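User: Design a sequence. Structure:
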C-alpha cells in the first residue's frame, strides 16, 4: 500500500502541498486531480523520493520511500522525457539500467511490450523519427518495463489517437488486475471516471474533495434531469422552484436541479405535456470538479 500521511511541502515561503493525506491499495487505480499549479507534480516528486517533505510521511508497503526504492516505481510524466537522439533500444537500456534491470530483462520485457503495443520493429528506430503518439508509447513502455509496484501516470493519453488510448487503457487495467498500485492524473474527467473508484481533488495543495466517486456523486446534491417532449415551455421550467438552469442539448432539455427532492416538482410542472423522456442522472465528475474548484476562477 502507498500511504501519504499529512504531507506538507514548501518552496521557500510558498506552501505548495498542505497537509495532504491519501492511500492507494494494491490493485487500485487512484485519481489525483487538480487544476494547473494545484500541487500534483510536487506530490508525485515527493512520492518518488525526488523532493524532501517538510512535514508528514510517505511509505510504500510499509517502507519509507527513498532513492533505493525507485526500481519499485514507474512514472509517466506529462512532459516528454525521452532522449530523442537515441534509438528505442538505447532509450530502453538507459531507463532499464537506472531501474536495476539486466540486459536480458530489458530486451525481453521491452521486446514483449513493443510487440504488445503493435510496434515490434521499432527497436532500432531513432526516437525523433517516431510520431508523437508512438513516442508516447515508448515513454509508457520505459515506465512499466521493470514491472513496478507503483505506477504514476500523469496525463498518459496526451497525443494518442482513440485506438492507442484503448491499448493503453487495457494495459493499465491489466497492471492493476495484477496488483500494481496506480495513481492516475488527468484533466479529462471522463477518463478518470472510467478508471478510478477513489479520488482526491487538490486545490492550492490542499485536499478539497476525497473519497469514492460514487459516494461523492451521491453527496453532491445537485442532479440533472434530461427531458424530451412536446409543448414544454423552457422559460416556465426555469422559473420552477428548485431549478438551477435549463439548457437545450440537441432536441432535449437538461434541467439542473438543487437536489433530488425537486424531481417531483419538475415532473408535476410538465406532466400534462407529451413526454418521451424523463431521466434523472447523477452529475458528471467534470461538473463536480468545476463546481468544487471553479469558484476560485469565477465559474
Ligand atoms: P500542472 O497541472 O500545471 O502540472 P501541478 O498541479 O503539477 O500543475 P505543481 O507543479 O506541483 O502543480 O506546482 C504547485 C505550485 O508550486 C505552483 O504554484 C508552482 O508554481 C509551485 N512550484 C512548483 N515547483 C516549484 C519550484 N521548484 N520552486 C518554487 N515554486 C514551485
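Assistant: Done.
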Amino acid at each position: 500500500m502507498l500511504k501519504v500521511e499529512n504531507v506538507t511541502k514548501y518552496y521557500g515561503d510558498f506552501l505548495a502541498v498542505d497537509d495532504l493525506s491519501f492511500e492507494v491499495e494494491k490493485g487500485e487505480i487512484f485519481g489525483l486531480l487538480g487544476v494547473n499549479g494545484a500541487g500534483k507534480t510536487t506530490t508525485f516528486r515527493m512520492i518518488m523520493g525526488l523532493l524532501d517533505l517538510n512535514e508528514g510521511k510517505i511509505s510504500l508497503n510499509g517502507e519509507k520511500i527513498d532513492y533505493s526504492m525507485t526500481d519499485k516505481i514507474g512514472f509517466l510524466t506529462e512532459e516528454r522525457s525521452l532522449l530523442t537522439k537515441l534509438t528505442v533500444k538505447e532509450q530502453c537500456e538507459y531507463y532499464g539500467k537506472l531501474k536495476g534491470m539486466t540486459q536480458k530483462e530489458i530486451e525481453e520485457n521491452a521486446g514483449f511490450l513493443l510487440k504488445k503495443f503493435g510496434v515490434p520493429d521499432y527497436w532500432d528506430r531513432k526516437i525523433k523519427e517516431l510520431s508523437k503518439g508512438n513516442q508516447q508509447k515508448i515513454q509508457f513502455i520505459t515506465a512499466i518495463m521493470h514491472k513496478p509496484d507503483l505506477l504514476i501516470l500523469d496525463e498518459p493519453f496526451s497525443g494518442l489517437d482513440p485506438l492507442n488510448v484503448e491499448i493503453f487503457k487495457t494495459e493499465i487495467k491489466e497492471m492493476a488486475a495484477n496488483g500494481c498500485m496506480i495513481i492516475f492524473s488527468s484533466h479529462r474527467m471522463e477518463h478518470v471516471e472510467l478508471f478510478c473508484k477513489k479520488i482526491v481533488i487538490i486545490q492550492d495543495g490542499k485536499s478539497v474533495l476525497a473519497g469514492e466517486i460514487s459516494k461523492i456523486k451521491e453527496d453532491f446534491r445537485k442532479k440533472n434531469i434530461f427531458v424530451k417532449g412536446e409543448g414544454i415551455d423552457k422559460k416556465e421550467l426555469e422559473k420552477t422552484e428548485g431549478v438551477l438552469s435549463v439548457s437545450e442539448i440537441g432536441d432535449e432539455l437538461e434541467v439542473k436541479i438543487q437536489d433530488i427532492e425537486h424531481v417531483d416538482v419538475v415532473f408535476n410542472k410538465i406532466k400534462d405535456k407529451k413526454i418521451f423522456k424523463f431521466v434523472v442522472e447523477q452529475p458528471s465528475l467534470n461538473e463536480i470538479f468545476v463546481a468544487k474548484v471553479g469558484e476560485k476562477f469565477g465559474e
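Residues 221-281 form a domain with the Alpha-Beta Plaits fold (CATH 3.30.70.980). The chain has a mean pLDDT of 91.
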